[in-house]
Amino acid sequence: MTSNDTLVTPKLDTYDGLLAAITPSAGDTREILDPATGAVVGLAPVHTVDDLEAAIAAATLAQPAWAALGHDARSAVMVRAADAIDAAAEALAQLLSREQGKPLNGPNARFEVGGASAWLRTAAATPLESEVLIDDGTTHAAISYRPIGVVGAIGPWNWPMMISMWQIAPALRMGNAVVVKPSEYTPLSVLALVAVVNQVLPEGLVTVVSGGRAIGAGLAVHPGIGKVMFTGSTATGKAIIKSSADTVKRLTLELGGNDAGIVLPDADPAAIAEGLFWGAFINTGQTCAALKRLYVHDDIYDAVCEELTAVAARMPMGVGMDESNVLGPLQNQAQFDIVAGLVQSAKDSGARVLIGGNPDLEAPGFFYPTTLIADIDDDNPLVREEQFGPVLPILRYTDLDDVIARANSVDVGLGGSVWSSDLVAARAVAARLETGTVWINAHGAVHPMIPFGGAKQSGYGLEFGVEGLKALGVPQVING
Ligand code: NAD
């Protein structure tokens, strides 16, 4: 390699190299600002519908050879791609922290990059054999999964690297190519992640098209896309169902949630307080399956409020690049306004603010302080709507049947949780919640081998584990 080559081939395991690799040398660009400081993080390309067409054409060309490699050879390449993420992990985490706002530490940027690598590795290592359905001497039938072709991956801004990898990894494992459309709020994170894995992957197999809603809509309607993996709001999910109808696309929809947690009277408030806190405030509350409504039995209501307030008071919030912080800003002004409006509606109703609720509107960044609201009614907008920020309403209950009905009274059903010292009692309550997942004495913990998906208007289809791989293939039964 000549010194000139070194100049034109940035090293992706350094922050500057990574940023240089994804900075467009031509075409329209847009400044991406740090939500904590307002400083320019970098320039994102503004891709067009022509770019989308080119990406789909390249993916269509690359996919057959990738599929023909077979599972073992594909898995070996995917493991090398995960190694490349690990080698660039710190640079990726710094970019993610600056663009998304989340701190390096806590369950945030470094954790997210580690998750992207772990999900890729797990998808590579998960076997999916052809399954014999009947073999009784007269009938033989087996089911296996063929590649779909080109998969469209449309993602949100809250966990941009991890969620993109949740979509890319199983798609690749099953022999597909992928065109990725990141959120317009966090394109750099996804461009960087894909630049890193593309050091290893065949050309054209995974391409990022960085644009707004029109690019997402173009992907959802395109006849060259066989499946859309979508994570985002319920409203956009409904738009994608409509725009994908003409081509009968397969869909996996991971949509919004309004997860309830129920604390039974036998729970120990001091023991569960930190788990409750992170269940609600992971990623500063900007998490689909975060705890968004907490129902606590009257017997221990005051004690839980007190313990949670104590935990909230000691969790530092600030600029993500400061190693001491574990909570960050909201990612964008629109989300800040939603959170501020919902807290205002709670205050206006006479609900009690235990901590927070008083943003400093003069300070830089979209920081909303950690906020706990007690004595609030079920019909308050902060309880009915998804806040997606660092605010938790805490509601009182006395009757178990009644609280289960209240928990189930929303039209979404992503996750839920039950908190108790009695596992049998907790599981019995869990089975009555209308959600895709229920955690016991935890909330929101995901695992690459445990299927995850929503009920009701939180979407359909499963991600992760063997079920997640099946969702990225076309089932084929061979009968005979
Ligand atoms: P969003 O729906 O506004 O945007 C998501 C993506 O869809 C973006 O890339 C956007 O450009 C694209 N898009 C917008 N309009 C489109 C259209 N008509 N056709 C195709 N694509 C289009 O969501 P967001 O604000 O980025 O994310 C927050 C939401 O995502 C919350 O509701 C949250 O609960 C949900 N979420 C769900 C999960 C889950 O696993 N269920 C995970 C994370 C976030």
TrEMBL record:
| PANTHER family recorded | ALDEHYDE DEHYDROGENASE-RELATED (PTHR11699)
Annotated Aldehyde dehydrogenase domain residues: 25-471
Keyword Oxidoreductase among record annotations: yes
Q: Which organism is it from?
A: Cryobacterium luteum
Protein keywords = Oxidoreductase
Superkingdom, taxonomy of origin: Bacteria
Q: Which PROSITE patterns match?
A: ALDEHYDE_DEHYDR_CYS, ALDEHYDE_DEHYDR_GLU
**Entry keyword annotation includes Oxidoreductase:** yes
Q: Which family does it belong to?
A: Belongs to the aldehyde dehydrogenase family.
Q: Which residues does UniProt mark as catalytic?
A: E254
An MF annotation (GO) of this entry: oxidoreductase activity, acting on the aldehyde or oxo group of donors, NAD or NADP as acceptor
- Tell me the protein's name: Aldehyde dehydrogenase family protein
Q: Which SUPFAM superfamilies match?
A: ALDH-like
